[in-house]
């Protein structure tokens, strides 16, 4: 792997995603007040926080995924944690891999058409994958792919340069949409082709109307290959401010809202007679420790700080209880998460013992930075500062824009911060090849490995697990767990918490469960009026 593939796009997404950590994915009971024939449910009204940076499904790498996941489809869908099957068919009806994980064969669904009238076949799938390899915002996910070919009208074969989990790649929310070849050709000639609101997917909805910064209107696709969506129209008001969305929701102006202030979840549920649901999310908060200089070059000191963190208080204060303590850097529900990976618990006496053992009984001072645009970090950083003060460690806190924080951290570890608070998530549902690799695998140029930790033993485990994931996932899991055990013992970061997704489920709507593999997408097909 090449760590330089790490997403620079994260700098653009962090502000947007930071808001999502302090908000909810939810619905109101607006539709519950409607009675009569099914025709009265033809329109679903929505307040959505997601901005549209592009309508190009290939280059998309931001929050427009909320809409694109209804218009386009990948080869496979990854099911939520706990489902009976890991994947379900989408454009591919079935698939298999060779024993060595180097050849993947996908059998393409017949009778599917794109919204522009083009027929879906194996050649169209190949064209989409080749376009993604060449210019996708997430083109790096296709790095293992050597060649891809259509062996007949309904069969696509991928040959890899090394074993990799192409089922996970093919189910990615970025860089894996299947797009009409005619539209791909037009976009190759004109990079602004899609921006007028053109769509060329196979999904249950088409893009009917778009007013930049104002509204998105989706319309049911009559020739959709699967069961038709219940709602004929989904009328979405782009509403970046969560308080405004809440007001629209409680006033009955919309049936559904994608973001409401987390602190108001209970009151909204009470006002609307709704149920509060929680689910895993792919998000993860951690604080990277600068391991290149004293005192943080000593694992005993890093362990002491890990024992000093008030984990439960952080979750209660910054996530209002809607979170789970991390098990290193792999979010709950995302491969290769494991309950067998140990956690630290707050133990100030043990923290003081370790500091004394390391020769720092009198304490020391540290410099901590966090992203000023992230309100969740702003809430929990003071808790860390106060807890560390109780073991004699003074923390000087600096809030700065994430871009500035990141650039300063990458410039020179010798002059960088001591503690870098980070909000992170994997691009697709493999936190081994992403979180565990990107955050802690050593490299000549640090990108998100801003603990600057260098462990050949850890690197070897991560590299080995990455080559096993496509051929022997159980062996990959076991190897990743060894690597996570090393992270626990060596403590190059403070592993804080995984925020949960919170849904306000209304009595008037039946909605599908939140899927942590597609956190930026609301699947309108899975929302129907309650019986």
Automatic annotation (TrEMBL):
Domain Solute-binding protein family intervals: 87-443
UniProt-recorded Gene Ontology molecular function terms: peptide transmembrane transporter activity
Keyword hit for Cell cycle: no
InterPro entries: Peptide/Ni-bd, SBP_5, SBP_5_dom
PROSITE patterns linked: PROKAR_LIPOPROTEIN (PS51257)
Keywords associated with the record: Signal, Transport
GO cellular component, one term: periplasmic space
PANTHER family recorded: OLIGOPEPTIDE-BINDING PROTEIN APPA, PERIPLASMIC BINDING COMPONENT OF ABC TRANSPORTER
Stated family: Belongs to the bacterial solute-binding protein 5 family.
Name of the protein: Peptide/nickel transport system substrate-binding protein
């Amino acid at each position: 792997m090449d760590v330089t593939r790490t997403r620079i796009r994260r700098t653009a997404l962090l502000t947007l995603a930071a808001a999502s950590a302090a908000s909810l994915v939810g619905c109101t009971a607006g539709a519950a007040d409607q009675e009569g024939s099914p025709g009265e449910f033809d329109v679903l009204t929505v307040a959505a926080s997601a901005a549209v940076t592009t309508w190009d499904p290939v280059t998309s790498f931001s929050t427009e995924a909320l809409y694109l996941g209804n218009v386009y489809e990948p080869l496979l869908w990854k099911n939520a944690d706990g489902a009976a099957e890991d994947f379900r068919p989408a454009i591919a009806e079935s698939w298999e891999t060779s024993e060595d994980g180097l050849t993947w064969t996908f059998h393409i669904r017949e009778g599917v058409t794109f919204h522009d009238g083009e027929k879906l076949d194996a050649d169209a799938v190949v064209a989409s994958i080749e376009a993604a390899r060449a210019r996708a915002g997430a083109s790096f996910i296709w790095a293992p792919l050597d060649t891809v070919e259509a062996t007949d009208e309904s069969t696509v074969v991928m040959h890899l340069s090394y074993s990799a989990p192409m089922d996970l790649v093919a189910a990615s929310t970025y860089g894996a949409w299947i797009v009409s070849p005619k539209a791909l050709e037009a976009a190759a000639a004109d990079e602004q082709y899609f921006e007028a609101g053109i769509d060329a997917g196979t999904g249950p909805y088409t893009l009917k109307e778009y007013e930049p910064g104002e509204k998105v209107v989706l319309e049911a696709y009559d020739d959709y290959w699967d069961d038709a969506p219940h709602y004929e129209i989904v009328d979405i008001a782009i509403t970046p401010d969560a308080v405004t969305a809440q007001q629209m929701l409680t006033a009955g102006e919309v049936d559904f809202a994608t973001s409401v202030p987390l602190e108001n979840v209970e009151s909204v549920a009470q006002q609307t007679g709704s149920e509060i649901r929680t689910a895993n999310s792919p998000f993860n908060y951690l604080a990277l420790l600068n391991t290149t200089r004293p005192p943080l070059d000593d694992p005993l000191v890093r362990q002491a700080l890990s024992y000093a963190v008030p984990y439960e208080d952080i979750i209660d204060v910054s996530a209002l209880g809607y979170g789970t303590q991390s098990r290193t850097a792999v979010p709950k529900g995302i491969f290769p998460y494991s309950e067998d990976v140990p956690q630290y618990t707050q133990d100030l006496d043990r923290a003081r013992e370790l500091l004394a053992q390391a020769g720092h009984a009198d304490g020391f001072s540290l410099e901590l930075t966090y992203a000023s645009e992230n309100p969740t970090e702003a809430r929990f950083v003071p808790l860390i500062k106060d807890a560390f003060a109780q073991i004699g460690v003074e923390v000087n806190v600096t809030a700065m824009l994430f871009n500035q924080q990141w650039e300063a951290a990458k410039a020179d570890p010798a002059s960088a911060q001591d503690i870098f608070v980070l909000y992170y998530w994997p691009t697709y549902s493999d936190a081994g090849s992403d979180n565990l690799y990107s955050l802690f695998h050593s490299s000549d140029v640090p990108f998100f490995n801003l603990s600057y930790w260098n462990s050949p033993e850890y690197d070897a485990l991560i590299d080995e697990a990455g080559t096993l994931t496509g051929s022997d996932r159980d062996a990959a899991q076991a190897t990743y767990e060894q690597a996570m055990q090393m992270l626990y013992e060596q403590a190059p970061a403070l592993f804080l918490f995984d925020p949960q997704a919170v849904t306000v489920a209304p009595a008037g709507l039946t909605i599908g469960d939140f899927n942590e593999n597609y956190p930026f997408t609301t699947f309108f097909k899975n929302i129907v009026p309650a019986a």
